[in-house]
Every structure is written in C-alpha cells, then in structure tokens.
Write a structure and sequence with these properties.
Blueprint lengths: L2 E6 L6 H5 L4 E4 L2 E4 L2 E4 L6 H7 L5 E4 L3 H13 L4 E6 L7 H9 L7 E6 L4 H16 L4 H11 L4 E7 L3 H5 L4 H7 L5 E7 L5 E8 L2 H16 L3 E8 L3 H11 L4 E9 L2 H7 L3 E8 L2
Helix pairs in contact: 5-6
Length: 284
C-alpha cells in the first residue's frame, strides 16, 4: 500500500533531503508579522524574519487546514492510500491537536496516522527520514512506531543554547527553563526537550556564550563517546560561529556526516538569532 510521510516545517529538513526521500513531504507552519501571515520556508526567508524580530510584532501559528487538506488531496491524486505524519512536539505547538481535529472534517480517502515526535528541528527531521526509510522497506506502521519511540533518546541527543531568554519568554516557551535558572542575567542555559516534549535545562553556565558551547560539547561526548554519528549544527544568523564550532566538534566526536543548517524561522522566532544547537544520532 503506497504510503507518504508528512512532517511539518519545524523539522527543518533541507531541500536536498526532500529530494532524496521521494515519499517525504512537508507542511509549512505559519509566521505572523504585523498581522500578515507567511508560510514558513515558503513565503519568507530566515533573514527577513530575524531582521524584524525586535521592531515588529512577530509570532508563529499553526499550519492552515486549507494547506493540510490541499496536501492530502495532492497525495491522493498521486496514488497514496496512507500517510504517516510526524509532527512537532505537542508540548511546544498545537500542531498535533489541530491536525487531529482537522482530520475529523476531511472527506478524502487517504488514511492518516499522526505521530507526535515530542521534539523539533533536526531531531524531528531524523524521525521523519527514518520513517521514510522503514516504510519504504515495507515495515508496518505499528512496528515503525515501536522503533521511533526510543530513537528520540536511546540513539540521539539534541542540545541548544541561546544568548538571551527574551524570545522564549515572548513566545511563551520558557516553561521549566526559567524555573531552573531564575533571574540570573549572565546565565547561559543548555536546553533540551524532555520526555514530555517541553524545554528543560540540562546545565547552566555563567558568563560567555562560549562556555555554553563547551558544556554542550561535553554532553555530546558523554552521550556518544567514539560512536559514529550524524551531527547537525543549527544556527540563527551566526553561520560563522556555527561553522567554527562544528570544526571543533570533529576533534572530540566521531562525526561521519555533518550538516550546518540555518534554523527555520518558525523556530528561530522563539530562540532569537544568536543561538546554536547540536543535534546528533548514531549511525547504524
């Protein structure tokens, strides 16, 4: 039975990744700027969004039902009978619940399974590409879900740090992070997403952003040791810093595949432009 894999744009998948996964499709989340809506990675660039963060009313919104139904209709025309949809964490976005409610009104024939990744960024992207590989190999969805659940932590890890908490506060994503660090202005937290799919603090560093990078590196080394890994480094508008840190990581980790990827703006709105994230998974 022909099955499509859908993920939302919070998975941060690059175009070349989509090109080598022919049954993988993305549904854009929405960015709101001064009351106008823009589809993430379609209607507006990361640079445009980051440039407006401090001087405009910028927020995020869920994928439109119209876009979702349009995608499902296109998939049906292409002969797909099923779709497996990996969504951004329900602890950070209402996408999972919105799509679940939308499906109640969908009158098409395609059978859609929603899977809450409980993560975002490259971590979500890893799950989507794994789903593509395994479904293409013929495994059923029940088996796939059993494989995906432990992949979030058993063989992968995501950490990030930000220069300021103001963007997380503005977007209401601060949650347990602020409780862990209090109001200390010079604290740079190292953040991850926990089992509940919400941001939590892994460690706290005092002073420079560089110290947070060192803490993230140590966490990665402790997790993976000398295992072969795929590493993604996300950045906001600080590519040179991301490239510099990625080169340093090669001296401490067995990185077989490295991607330096600008964070999609629908996520960057909540982290701000001065951020770095390390997302890694073991290579079988």
């Amino acid at each position: 039975m022909k099955t499509a894999i859908i993920t939302d744009s919070a998975s941060n998948l690059e175009q070349k990744t989509l090109e080598i996964h022919p049954h993988l499709y993305t549904l854009p989340l929405v960015i709101m700027i001064d009351g106008e809506s823009y589809r993430d990675q379609v209607d507006i660039s990361s640079e445009e969004v980051y440039a407006k963060l401090d001087d405009h009313d910028v927020s995020t919104s869920l994928p439109s039902t119209e876009d979702f139904f349009s995608l499902l209709g296109d998939l049906e025309e292409k002969g797909y009978e099923k779709a497996f949809f990996v969504t951004v964490s329900s602890g950070l976005s209402g996408t999972y619940n919105a799509m679940r409610n939308a499906l109640k009104a969908y009158e098409g024939t395609i059978e859609v399974t929603l899977y809450d990744s409980l993560t975002l960024g490259a971590g979500e992207g890893y799950l989507a590409t794994h789903a593509h590989t395994r479904l293409s190999e013929g495994v059923n969805q029940e088996t796939l879900i059993k494989e995906l659940n432990p992949l979030r932590f058993a063989t992968s890890m995501a950490t990030d740090s930000i220069d300021t908490l103001k963007y997380l506060r503005r977007g209401g994503r601060i949650g347990k992070v602020e409780g862990a660090i209090g109001g200390a202005l010079r604290v740079k937290p190292v953040i991850t997403v926990n089992d509940e799919g919400v941001y939590v603090t892994l460690s706290k560093t005092i002073g420079s952003f560089q110290r947070a990078m060192l803490s993230m590196k140590k966490l990665m080394v402790k997790k993976f040791k000398d295992k072969a890994i795929h590493m993604t480094v996300h950045y906001g508008d600080n590519y040179d810093k991301a490239k510099e840190q990625a080169e340093k990581l090669k001296n401490f980790l067995n990185i077989k595949e490295l991607v330096i990827s600008q964070l999609t703006p629908v996520l960057g709105i909540h982290t701000g432009p001065k951020m770095l994230a390390y997302v890694a998974r073991t290579i079988d």
